[in-house]
Amino acid sequence: MILITGATGNLGQLVIKELLNNKAEFVAGVRNINKYNGHHCNLEYIDYDNLSVMKNAFKNIDTIIFISGNAETEHRIQQHRNLIDAAKQENIKHIIYLSFITVTDPHSKFSFTRQHIDTESYLKASGISHTIVRSCWYMENIKTEIINALDNQVFIDNSNTGKISFISRQDVAKGLAQIAINVNLQDRIYTFTGSAAYSMQNIVDLMNANCHKQIKYTLYSDNDYKKRLIDAKLPEFLAEAITLNRVDIDNGDYAFICQDVNFINKKLPLDISDYIFSICCTH
Ligand SMILES: NC(=O)c1ccc[n+]([C@@H]2O[C@H](COP(=O)([O-])OP(=O)(O)OC[C@H]3O[C@@H](n4cnc5c(N)ncnc54)[C@H](OP(=O)(O)O)[C@@H]3O)[C@@H](O)[C@H]2O)c1
C-alpha cells in the first residue's frame, strides 16, 4: 500500500491522478480531512509536525511518496526528520523523497537547499530503503510572470544569463507515481529536468517568436525584485529565498540536463516552449 503526503497540493493532486489512472492501491495523507476537495480517494490524517499522528497513518503502509513541505527552512528540516522517524518506527519499506536539483551545490544560496540536503542525509542515515527525485524548477513558477509580460510587454526577473531546464509538475508527478508502482525503478537517485535549458531572455525570445509579441526583458536588482514579490503577497521568507535563488541560476545550478524523467515516463518531458504557447493561446 502506498501513502502520498502533500496530497492537497498542486503536485500531490497530479500524483494522485496518476495513481488512480494506474489503479494503484494508495491512501492520500492530508492535514485537514474535512476540507479535502481533491480527487476522490481514501484519506489518512497526517501532519509533519506530529510524530504520533504520522505513526498512526503509516500502519499498513509499505511505500511513502514524500512530497517536501512548504514551511521555513529550519521548521521544514524538523518536520521532515519527524516523518522519517515515524516511518522508521513503523517499519516502512520504502520512501520516495521529492528533493531539489541544487543539493549538489554546497555553496547554494537558495535557503531550501540546506533543508533538502539535511533530509537526504537523514533519510540515508535512517537505513530505510529510499529513492530520491531531485526536481528542477517547475515551469509553472513563472506562469504569473508570463501572463504579466503578455499584458504589459515587459518580463521581469533578477537573473542574468543563467539557464534553467524547467520541468512541468505533471512530468514530476507521473515520474513519482511510476517509481512508487514499479519496484524495479526504486533505490536510486534521479534528477528530473526538461530536455533543454533556457535563460529568462530565452523565455522572452520564445514568447516573442511563438506569440507574436514584442516583450522586453527587464532585469531587476535583488532588492527591487524581493520588494516586488512581497508586494505580490509572498511571505518574506519565500520572497527572500526566491530572490537569492538568482545566484544559483546564474551559477548554472539549474542548467543541468538529465534524461531520467524520459527513462521513467517513457516520453519526452513537456518543453517550456509548448507551455508558453499554451498560455498564449488561452490568455
Ligand atoms: N521545484 C520547484 O520549482 C518547487 C517550487 C515550489 C515548491 N516546491 C516543493 O515542492 C512541493 C510540492 O509543490 P506544490 O506546488 O504541490 O506545493 P503546495 O501546493 O504548496 O503543496 C504543499 C503540500 O504540503 C502539505 N503540507 C504542508 N505542511 C504540512 C504539514 N505540516 N503536514 C502535512 N502536510 C503538509 C500541504 O498541505 P495543506 O493543504 O494542509 O497545506 C500541501 O498538500 C512543495 O511543498 C515544495 O517543497 C518545488
TrEMBL record:
Residues 6-180 form the NAD(P)-binding domain. This is NAD(P)-binding domain-containing protein. It comes from Photobacterium iliopiscarium. SUPFAM superfamilies: NAD(P)-binding Rossmann-fold domains. InterPro entries: NAD(P)-bd_dom, NAD(P)-bd_dom_sf, NmrA-type_oxidoreductase. The lineage of its organism: Bacteria, Pseudomonadati, Pseudomonadota, Gammaproteobacteria, Vibrionales. Pfam families: NAD_binding_10.
